[in-house]
Amino acid sequence: MIDLPDFDAKIFIENVCDFIKEKVKNAHCTGVVLGLSGGIDSAVVAYLAVKALGSSNVRGYILPTKTTSQQDLDDAKLVQEKLKIEGESICIDEIHENIMKELSNEGQPDNNLALATSNVKPRLRMTILYYYATIYKSLVIGTGNKTELNVGYFTKHGDGGVDMLPIGDLYKEEVMAVAKELGVPEQIIEKPPTAGLLPNQTDEKELGMTYHVLDRLLYLYLDENNDEEEISKKLGLDITEVERIINLNKNSQHKRDTPPIFLK
User: Fold this and answer.
1) 1.10.287.3510, 3.40.640.10, 3.40.50.620, 3.40.920.10: which CATH number matches 9-197?
2) What average pLDDT score do residues 166-177 get?
3) Rounded CA gap, 57 and 53, in Å?
4) What region does 225 belong to: left with phi over 0, alpha with psi -120 to 50, or beta?
5) Phi, psi of 208 (to 5 degrees)
6) Which of 163, 132, 170 shows the shortest CA–CA distance to 149?
7) What is the pLDDT of residues 224-249, one digit of tens each?
8) Which residues are marked as active site?
9) Which pTM value belongs to this model?
10) Residue 202: closest CA among 78, 80, 40, 94
11) Most exposed: 27, 88, 164, 189, by fewest CB within 10 Å?
12) Which residues, including other chains, have CB under 8 Å from residue 218's CB and lie 6 or more apart?
C-alpha cells in the first residue's frame, strides 16, 4: 500500500486560519456558524474557526435526530464546552416528520424513497444554519473533506450547502493529522465516522471501503492521474472496485459544480 505525500499539519493550520479570516472579512461578516455532529470533521473545523476568529465569533449548533447516537451528542457538547462556543441544540425530528406528512408518496416510485427521505434531514440542518448565520451576520463554514466530497458522500444543498470548505482539500487521513495537532479529544479522533442519517450507519460500511484505502485510491486518480489499471496494481485492489469509486467521482460531479449558467 502506498503512502500519501508528506503533510505538514502545522503549516496547514496557519494557512487555513488566514483563509477563514479572509473569507469572513471579504463577506463583511462578523463570524461563522457550523453544525456540530460529534464527528472528527466538524470538530476540526470548529477548532480551526475558533483559532482563526476567537470563540465569541463562532457558533456551533447541535442538530440531532433519533438516529443520532448518544456518543455523538456527548462529543458535540464536549467540543462546545472545550472551545467555549455558544449554539443551541435543536432536535429536528418533529420538523422532519411534519414535512414528510405533507409530502404525498402515493403513486411515487419507491426505489429512492428512503434516500430522498433521509436527505431532507441535512437540508433542514442547512436551513437552520443559514437562519442563524443571517441573524448573527455570519458565514456558514462547511465540514466536508476531500475524500467524501470526491465520491459525492454528502447531500447537495444539505451539508454541501455552505460558504466555505476549509478542509475540503484534505483527505481523511490528513484531517486526522490536523485533529491531533489541534488537540481534538482522542475519543472523537478514534471513533468510527458516521453520517448519522440511519441507525447503526458508518461511513466505511456505506462506502464499502476503508478511508485508508479510499484516500489512496483517490490520490492516485485525482492527484497522480493514474488510470484504473494502474491504481488496481498499485493498491492490490480488484479493478471493479477501482471502477466503482471512479464512477462515484464522475457521477457526483454535478454535486461539486456551481449551477451552470447558459450564456446568451
Assistant:
1) 3.40.50.620
2) 98
3) 6
4) left
5) 75, 25
6) 170
7) 999 999 999 999 999 999 999 999 99
8) 41, 148
9) 0.95
10) 40
11) 88
12) 146, 147, 150, 151, 171, 245, 249
